[in-house]
Amino acid sequence: QVQLVESGGGLVQSGGSLRLSCAASRRTVSTYAMGWFRQAPGKEREFVAGINWSGSTTYYGDSVKSRFTISRNNAKNTAYLQMNSLKSEDTAVYYCAAQRVPYGLGFKAETDFGSWGQGTQVTVSS
User: Fold this and answer.
1) What is the Cα–Cα distance from 122 to 88, expressed in whole angstroms?
2) Number of helices (H) and strands (E), helices first, in the chain?
3) Average model confidence (pLDDT) for the chain?
4) pLDDT at 48
5) In whole angstroms, what is the distance from residue 22 CA to residue 4 CA?
6) What span, in angstroms and rounded, lies between the C-alpha atoms of 55 and 116?
7) Which of 37, 54, 100, 102 could form a disulfide with 31 if both were Cys (CB 3.0 to 4.6 A apart)?
8) 85 within 8 A of 67, measured Cβ to Cβ
């Protein structure tokens, strides 16, 4: 498994921006797709964004399309989530995840991912 550490969460006003980072412990993470999920209080964890191992393909959840951007820097073993135009409904704990197998095809479902970070809180005030 890969150890993942998220950072960059915090409190921001509605309409503001934050950038989350996910640092991986192993260089081989460059061969794994990465994803971001979030879980709000009382709700199930939901898919936010995913990116394949090379960064050439990305997917987004419907609620964040056109506002969030996922990216990665394989030289730094790090994935990012740029969040713009934040809304109060974006308030949640955000989790970074690494794909279960290298060069795998799926990276949108929770079951596609085998390693998870501890989460970082994002709170958007209205």
Assistant:
1) 10
2) 0, 11
3) 95
4) 98
5) 6
6) 19
7) 102
8) yes
